[in-house]
Design goal:
Distance between the termini: 12 Å
Shape: globular
Order of helices and strands: HEEEHHEEHHEHHEEEHEHHEEHHEEH
Number of strands: 14
Radius of gyration: 20 Å
Helix content: 55-70%
Length: about 400
Amino acid sequence: MKIDQLISTYKTELFDKVLPFWQNYSRDAEFGGYFTCLARDGEVYDTDKFIWLQARQVWQFAKLYNSVEPRQEWLDMALHGAGFLEKHGADENGKWYFSLNRQGTPLVQPYNIFSDCFATMAFGQLYKATGEERYAKIAKDTFYAILERQDDPKGQYNKLVPGTRPLKNFALPMILSNLALEIESLLPASLIEETLDKVIHEVMEVFYQEDTGLILENVSPDGQFVDCFEGRLLNPGHAIEAMWFMMDLGEKLHRPELIEKAVDITLKTLEYGWDKEHGGVFYFMDLKGYPPQQLEWDQKLWWVHLETLVALLKGYRHTQNDACLQWFEKVHAYAFEHFSDPEHGEWFGYLNRQGEVLLPLKGGKWKGCFHVPRGLMYCLQTLEQIKQQE
């Protein structure tokens, strides 16, 4: 690994190719907030605004301001989105909608708790940047509301018949493990400790299956395997992203054994989830090798590969495990060859199994200004830390 060359590559990709794309094309100067439905060249092809993507972009620019360099243009970009969210993003009870039209009128009810999770992250990061107490209040109030909803996140919007096949999903404990660290300075230490204990247990013991070394997306309420579509579901990208959250927690809590286990699960998941025929990491898999219910199971997605790069570099920094380095070089080569767009900047999001671009969009309903810049930013910071260690 030529570390200086990699640092240069990630710097160029982030600062010259990815961030300018969003700065040039996503800002809605008329109504506030951001356009996320952007074609390959930045053309806006739909003007609806999805709360979790709006909040993620606020977080991203505030985080750059706080942890990379206090550039006014980055803070202005974050404040631009935050103003729209404050005005239109939540209902009268403080629950964050899923989507709005361009002007800010609600389109989809607040059924999705991840709107709230990313609003918490956005306003927590913005408070760090500005010291504005109202941002801290929004972050705290939303976080407490998430904790109240965590056992029944969809509430009245749940379409499942209760009691027949109760399952709990991996996504919320995974997100909480990162979210609690994001806003720990705003919350009582006892609450952070309690939340972290719970999510580490959930991620590393309840959803993790000792016999396979893999993490399931859904388990029974008492953590047992359930033999059905949802119970057999594996999402390698989710599992690997959660592992770098666990590495961060291991570092904070001085728990090297947690870091070692997270690295081990990362490598096992990659071995299992890597497409040995065409390269890249599968989107969804079935634990028993049956056909997954998701028809897009064999697509290669941008975020999966970026989260994998972050996890492998963090894993190597903490443990000097050569397997992390070998996998990093392999995933890096695949990602930069297939996802990065040398012509227009930013990354493609969706490839077919063979690695060909399936949709040329740069943003949409599910892809915004988050995984690419966040992944590149954390890779760059971790590479710089590895360089210092060496």
